[in-house]
Amino acid sequence: MTFGEVIVAARAQANLSQRELAARIKNRDGKPISSQYLNDVERSRRNPPRPHLIEQLAAELRIPPAVLYFHAGRLPPEAAVIAASEQTIVKAYTVLLTILRDGHEPGDRDGHEPGDRDGQERANVQ
Fold first, then answer.
1. In this structure, what are the phi and psi dihedrals at residue 25, rounded to the nearest 5 degrees?
2. Which one in 53, 87, 100, 107 has a CA-CA gap of 20 to 30 Å to 40?
3. What string of pLDDT tens digits covers the 126 residues of the chain?
4. CA-to-CA distance for 100 and 92, rounded, in angstroms?
5. What is the CA 38 to chain-centroid distance, rounded?
């Protein structure tokens, strides 16, 4: 699903027209974005918007901002200021990709902790 497709689906779920949603999303100068700009974003004629617009879209459409950043192919701004080693970055991406692909963390089959039997908590397994 593209960023624009996510916006279209969420806007439909919220029962908002492009014009209504565009009027609620403000540029840095305080003026609303145009419905034509929103139309272009929804149809992937423009790149996903900058973080301040992504945050507003998330709030108005009641979507977790992380979902929009993911579909925009971006990291949230707070991630850019984290000092991390290359090793930590590679490990984090590996875990993220595994979770997205398999639906669980590496070594965590079926949502259970490694070593669990039949879904029982480790504390219960004696």
1. -100, 120
2. 100
3. 999 999 999 999 999 999 999 999 999 999 999 999 999 999 999 999 999 999 999 999 999 999 999 999 998 988 878 888 999 989 988 998 999 898 877 776 655 544 444 444 333 333
4. 12
5. 18
Please spell the DSSP secondary structure of 48-111, one letter per residue.
---HHHHHHHHHHHT--HHHHHHHHT---HHHHT----HHHHHHHHHHHHHHHHHSS-TT-GGG
Angle between helices 51-61 and 3-13 (to 10 degrees): 30
CA distance 65 to 40: 20
Residue 123 burial by Cβ neighbours in a 10 Å radius (0-12, 13-18, 19+): exposed
- In the numeric block, the tokens 């034509």 are attached to 36
Contact 23, 11 (CB under 8 A): no
Task: Answer yes or no: pTM beyond 0.90.
Answer: no
The span from the CA of 33 to the CA of 50, in Å, is: 12
- For 123, which DSSP code? G
